[in-house]
Amino acid sequence: MSSTIDHLGSRQRLLSLAAVCSTSFGTGISFGLGFPLTSLTFENWGQPAWMIGVAGAAPPFAILLSLPIAPLIIARLGSVTAIVLGCLIGGLGFLALGLFQSPWAWIAIRVLMSAGFAIPWLAGETWINEIARDETRGRIIALYAIVFFTGYAVGPVLLQMLGLAWPWPFIVAAAVTGLSALPIVLGRRLAPPMAHDESSANVASAIRRSPVAMVAAFIGGFSEITILSLIPNVALAAGWSEKLALAMLTVTTAGGIVLQYPIGWLSDLVSRFAMMIAAVIFFIGLALALPFALGDPFTGLVTAFLIGGIILAFYALGLAIIGERLTGSELTAANAGFIIMYQLGGLIGPLFAGIAMTDNAIQGFIAIVIVTMVLSGAALLYFDRVERHRAAS
To answer: What's the pLDDT tens digit per position in 356-393?
Structure first.
């Protein structure tokens, strides 16, 4: 797919990239702050585990509900206005959290905030795919993913510094979220001219047109949320200390951030679909090696670092495949479908993995991720064949 802003010079393209990545970093911090702020506050209020679970599930459900109409909102308002609106909703939501001491009020506010956050997330993904050239798409999207997930990792650290008590965590979170829109406003003249054809902003149709990317999104959500949620439990089951188990989680996250650019660079040199299949195979190999690697902390941490790089690569590679195969308003709708499938994977993964780990944490964990990868790899091969046949006809 050729870029829709080929008229921009290299410096203008770089500034456009900087604007959307800066906003992505800020929204990443907001995501990273919001989840622990809610769960820890509920814990301090003495809420039962099921209530904490409901609060944790509220944001992804809100995003799932809002994404089918998000392309229409972006089509009507334009990408810049839509991103500003989403950031303002999120910022005001953080202030509202500080004013209420009711768990149900918090859940309702988190639903509204997350519906707002879905808009800049979607618009940002579409923006980055529009400004990226095919020859550097993998590296550009890898950079975008690195920035977002670095912001996400910064969120809990910032919360640890600010504490949970009113007013500072709420004011700082609101300020960061609101100001996330500022780079987009300053770079509004460099916004890609996204197609605003409401009749083409059909998410269900876009999902059917880009099944390979949708499977990649599901794998990304499934593996990322499952691994990051449960890999400390696997380490504990292997006899690791709590400190080492948490270090494993940190190293996994670091691997996801550090390895993205090299993977993106490779995807620009070879077929991105081939890179996706290679990632599936490599992930299966790492999963099979994990029980043995856990016998030695150093080997286990190295394995976790590599796993982190692969699970985030599914997201970045899938997003790049959308950009190279779709154009115009279909791109916005496909990105919405991509996030929906990513969220579905993230919701289903920990649930099934938790059930599989009931009798034997390590073997159950390995079994569920390998079965998922084998089935997903087969689906990727099948749907790629379907897409190529459709393109040739």
So the answer is: 888 888 999 999 999 999 999 999 999 999 988 887 77
Q: Which CATH superfamily is domain 203-392 in?
A: MFS general substrate transporter like domains (1.20.1250.20)
- Residue 19 and residue 147: Cα distance in Å, rounded? 12
Reported confidence tier of residue 198, pLDDT bands at 50, 70, 90: low
Query: pTM here?
Result: 0.86
Question: Does 10-191 match 203-392 in CATH topology?
Answer: yes
How confident is the model over 78-119, as pLDDT tens digits? 889 999 999 999 999 999 999 998 999 999 999 999 999 889
Task: Note every long-range contact of 98-101, with CB atoms under 8 Å and residues 24 or more positions apart, other chains counting.
Answer: 98/166, 98/167, 98/169, 98/170, 98/171, 101/45
Q: How far is CA 160 from CA 3, 95, 168, in A?
A: 42, 18, 12
For residue 233, which of 55, 36, 368, 61 has the smallest C-alpha distance? 368
- pLDDT of res. 68: 85
**Alpha carbon distances (Å) from 197 to 61, 71, 128, 130, 350:** 27, 10, 19, 16, 37
> 370 φ, ψ to 5°?
-70, -45
Domain positions in the chain are: 10-191, 203-392
DSSP 166: S
pLDDT above 70 (res 181): yes
CATH of domain 10-191: 1.20.1250.20
Contact at 8 Å (CB) between 126 and 200?
Answer: no
Tokens 């997330």, residue located: 121
CB distance 144 to 128 below 8 Å: yes
Closest CA to 335 of 97, 40, 129: 129
HEC profile of 93-144 = HHHHHHHCCCHHHHHHHHHHHHHHHHHHHHHHHHHHHHHCCHHHHHHHHHHH
Average pLDDT over residues 223-244: 86
